[in-house]
Amino acid sequence: MNEDFKLEEELKKLPDKPGVYIMHGQKDEIIYIGKAVVLKNRVRQYFQSSRGKSPKILRMVSQITRFEYIITDSETEALVLECNLIKEHRPKYNTMLKDDKAYPFIRVDVSEAYPRIRIARQMKRDGAKYFGPFTSAGAVKDAIELLQKLFMIRSCNRALPEQEGRERPCLNYHIHQCAAPCQGYISSEEYKKNVEKALSFLSGHVEPVKNLVKEKMNAAAEALEFEEAAGYRELLNSIDHIAVSQKVTNTQSLKDRDVIACAVEKNEAVVQVFFVREGQMIGREHFHMSIPEGEEETEIIENFIKQYYSGTPFIPYEILIPCDIDGADAVADWLSSRRGAKVYIHAPKKGDKEKLLELAKRNAALVLTQDSLKLKREEERTLGAMRELGEYLGLCGLVRTESFDISNTGGFESVGSMVVYENGRPKKADYRKFKIKWVQGINDYASMEEVLTRRFERAKGGSKGFDRLPDIILMDGGRGQVNICESVLEKLGLDIPVAGMVKDDRHRTRGLYYKNVEIPIDTQGECFKLITRIQDETHRFAIEYHKSLRSAAQTRSVLLDIPGIGEKRRKALMAAFSSMEELKNASVEEIAKADGMNRPSAEAVYRFLHEV
Question: What is the dihedral of CA 309, 311, 313, 319, to 10 degrees?
Fold first, then answer.
């Protein structure tokens, strides 16, 4: 216990009221948050006889250094506060929902002069029209994209009509998927007529749109455009999903219910939810939870209900659960206040409802098994492959791997790349690019020496982003590149293992070169597959950087060949257009809008690009 915290005295001060209690650990971090109908009784229980307490509670109590509490007016108010505090602090001993899913809505702000159709995760009282919630975010995105295309509804973030005419219309206008209200090409009244058609679809009048998509699908199939036809078929599936979900949302049937069950294995739990609407199951979702070992099913279900329903707007009439939970009445009252109508929580022991719960439980167990196998396979691909690499080289504790490559075309714009893997996974935030400065022409060995020298000199100097050293360096070549790397490290006084990837006559890796010995490796093993992924990623990163420099150089040289275009206007054009292709597709008027450009110079650019 904290020396300044007198446990017995603080226990005596506990009030005979509802509230939330907060337990602090050795470093004064919050390790557990709970609610109580009577704080005095609930908190005292933790520090009384250990008999009957779960291993989780015993471990937690042994780490408590102090506690604090917040008094509330009711148990329901305590429950809401508990949910908010758990979400904010994510304490170690609270069961936590890993994926804080909130089902998506479709939102249309009809108060805008030119309304947009957006995806929203929360329903607010802001005057906008909301449709949903939907169980498939993918279907929602497909439906929004379809409505934007069919009814020419904008997808941009421009503030209209205030920013009308400030920028040229986007690509959607040119491909006839937006009416360009940003240019004033359509009035607000005409635009809103299109929005009304989209709202009609979202309100359930889907047949006109379905018929239109079917016509396009059939036409594409007849033209042997099977890929396009398949795309329309997927859109039809999304429309059906949206239509069913919307019908469900608009009903207040007493048969709307969620069925919740869970499966547990050590520190992992999967909670399965079946969504039953109007007597029919329309969908299901599973959620992963991290739990303290020894957590009881009743605690898992209670914590899931509180966290899940605090983040989803739709609350059904009835929630079926596999076991009774503490404070069920308070949870039901809280959910009822959120729903605006009575919510019932039941733990059925027989009949059809119990069978539905059993089905949900079997599904949860299946997901947990499948995900455990998936995690095991992923561990073999990553951590297992690193262990295997260490075994080949006689090294242990390998975590960070760095690999380097050089890319150039005829000595032009030579570049180097540094790719980093940690625990067998790419760590892209630590990737680095090097533009070769000291070497002229084609000399990959000298270029590699430069890249390695610059990288590790920066590490010695403590440069941010270079200060972490690798546990092993993998060189793409064999003996030659390994010798260069070891020479650089020796000069800088660094002791880091270096291995080369030895290739056969067909340029395929056959083994590792380490300490002047070629070590054969199993080409079917996970280590070999990891090395191949690192090689491919290092090549890709170097080539992409080289291509970007080469493209920029070509753009610069082409623009400077245009009469009347100097360095200042070249920079303005490069800032205004992302590529030569975009500039070539631009009109004279669009080119003239670039900084420092005028009509004659824009015409000169346009002529040059279309005559070349």
Answer: -10
Cβ atoms of residues 234 and 190 within 8 Å: no
- Indicate which CATH number applies to the domain containing 30: 3.40.1440.10
Distance in angstroms (rounded) separating the CA atoms of residues 188 and 206: 24
Q: How many independent structural domains does the chain possess?
A: 5
Q: Between residues 62 and 359, which one has the greater pLDDT?
A: 62
Count the alpha carbons within 13 Å of 197 in the hemisphere toward its beta carbon.
Answer: 16
* pLDDT winner (highest mean) among 46-55, 284-293, 488-497: 488-497
Q: What is the pLDDT of residues 164-185, one digit of tens each?
A: 888 888 888 887 788 899 988 9
In a domain, 2, yes or no: no
CA angle 224/226/230 to nearest 5° reads: 150
CATH code, domain carrying 276: 3.30.420
3-class SS of residue 577 = coil
Residues whose CB falls within 8 Å of the CB of residue 40, separated by 6 or more in sequence, listed in order: 14, 15, 16
Residue 603: give the domain boundaries: 561-611
- d(C-alpha 138, C-alpha 104), whole Å: 10
DSSP assignment of 154-168 equals: ------TTTTTTSS-
Do residues 276 and 155 share a domain? Answer: no
578 and 526 in a common domain: no
Task: Evaluate whether 332 touches 75 at the Cβ level (below 8 Å).
Answer: no
Q: Is residue 188 part of a domain?
A: yes
Query: Phi first, then psi: what are they for 495, rounded to 5°?
Result: -115, 95
| SS3 (DSSP) at 341 | coil
CA–centroid distance for 589 within its chain: 40
Q: Is the dihedral of CA 588, 593, 599, 600 positive or negative?
A: negative
> What one-character DSSP code corresponds to residue 381?
I
Provide the pLDDT confidence category of residue 238 given band limits of 50, 70 and 90.
low
Q: Residue 99: inside a domain, yes or no?
A: no
Give the C-alpha separation, 151 to 324, whole Å.
50
User: What's the CA gap between 414 and 410, in Å, rounded?
Assistant: 9
Smallest Cα–Cα separation from 248: which of 214, 279, 285, 205?
Answer: 279
Q: Whole-angstrom Cα distance, residue 426 to residue 530? A: 10
| Residues found in the chain | 612
Q: Check if the beta carbon of residue 430 is closer than 8 Å to that of residue 420.
A: yes
Same domain, 542 and 581: no
> What 3-state DSSP class applies to 55?
helix
pLDDT band at 99 (very low <50, low <70, confident <90, very high): low
Residue type at 219?
Answer: A
As a whole number of Å, the CA-based R_g of the chain is 32
pLDDT band at 246 (very low <50, low <70, confident <90, very high): very low
Which residue's entry shows tokens 């704080």?
39
558: which residues sit within 8 A by CB, 6+ positions away?
580, 612
Is the sign of the CA dihedral 505, 509, 514, 519 positive or negative? negative
The answer to whether 311 and 101 have CB atoms below 8 angstroms apart is yes
| Residue 250, pLDDT above cutoff 50 | no
